[in-house]
Amino acid sequence: MIIQTSGKFILAGEHFILYGCPALALPWHSAHLTLTSAPSHPAPEPPVLIEAWQHARSLLSLPKDTGFPFTLHSDIPFGCGFGSSAALCVALLRAAAYEANTPLDDAALIEHATTLEALFHGRSSGLDPAVVVRQTPLRFQIGQPPQPWSWTLQGVGIVLAVSQEQRKTAVAVERVRHYSQRYPARFGALLSQARDLIEAIQTLCASAPTETYQQRIQGRLLGTHLDHNHALLAEMDISAPHLESLVQCARNNGAWGAKLTGAGMGGGMIAVAEPDALPALAEALHDAGATTTHIHLPPVQHPPSSAISAASETTTNIVSASPEPPNPTREPCP
C-alpha cells in the first residue's frame, strides 16, 4: 500500500486569522509525503510517529497495534509552515481507513486529521488538514466552513524557501497578542489593512489575463500585496534576521514581492516572480543561506464541483525534484 499526500502554504492572512480575518492558502501539489507499508520490520521511528499511528487507528475503531509499519519519505520541509504534519496525519488516517475498510469522506477526514494534528503542535485550526485533503485553494476563517477560491493567474510562479532560524509558533502568537493589547488602535489599523489585502488578493488571483504584459502587471500587483502583508507582520516583530534577509534577497533578484509564510520567527517564506526568473531566484536564495528552496507553478484551479478531490485517491505517483537551476549573474544578497 502506497499513500501520497501533498503540502500547502499560506499566501496571506497568517496570524490575523486569529482575530477574525480570513486567510488564503494554496495546495503545494509538487511536494509530497509518501507513506509505504513495510510489514517486514521497518527501521525504528520516533515515538511521536508511533503515537500518531495508534491515535489514527483508535479514531477508526481499530485495535492497538505495535510499532510503525511504514516507511516514510517526504519532500515537504518539516516544521516550516508547509503542512508536513497535516500531510502525515491525512496519510495515516487513509491507511487506517483502508485497514478498517471504512471509507472517509472529506469532512470526516479533515475532522479526524485536525484532531490528530494536535499531537504535533497543539490545537490545530483545521486550515492545514483542509487544504491537504481538498487540494484546492481555500479561504479559511475561524468559525466558518473553508471556502474554495479560484487561482487563474498565469505567468506567475512561486519560490518557497526555508530560513536558518527555527520557526517559533507559540512565541510568535504571543508577540501578536501582546502587540494587540499594547497598541490596540494601531493593531486595529493593521487588521483592517489585512482584511483589505485578503479581498484584493483573492480578486486578483481570480483574474485571467491572456496577454503577457497583462499577466506581468497582475504578477507585480500580487507581489506588492505580498510585500504589504509582510510589512504588517514584520511591524509586530514576528520576522527574524535571516528570514528578513531572504525576503530582501528575493526582492533584489527578480521577485515581484516576497513575505514570510506561516507562524514566522523563522521557517518558511515565499516569493512570486515570472516563471523564467524562478531558477535564478531559487539559486540566489540558496546562496543566501536558505536551507532548502523549491519552485512551484500553481495550476489554474477553480472551486471544484464535487467535494471529492482526486487527490484523496491512493496513488504511487511521485514527482521528481525541481530541475537544477542555471547560474546567471545576479545581485549579492545580504
Description:
Helices cover 41% and strands 17% of the residues. With 334 residues, the protein is of the alpha+beta class. It folds into 2 domains: 2-148, Ribosomal Protein S5, domain 2; 157-312, Alpha-Beta Plaits (2-Layer Sandwich). Strands 1, 2, 3, 4 and 5 form a 5-stranded antiparallel beta sheet that branches. A 4-stranded antiparallel beta sheet has the order 7-8-6-9. Helix 2 packs across helix 3 (106-121) and helix 6 runs antiparallel to helix 7 (212-235).
Provide a concise account of the structure shown.
The chain is α+β, with helices and mostly antiparallel strands. The chain has helices spanning 47-59, 84-100, 106-121, 127-134, 169-182, 184-205, 212-235, 241-252, 278-287, and strands at 2-12, 23-37, 70-74, 138-140, 147-148, 157-162, 257-260, 268-273, 292-296.
Q: Could you say how many structural domains there are in total?
A: 2
Helix content: 40-55%
Tell me the number of helical segments per DSSP (H or I, 4 or more residues long): 9
Radius of gyration in whole Å, from Cα? Answer: 20 Å
Secondary structural class: alpha+beta
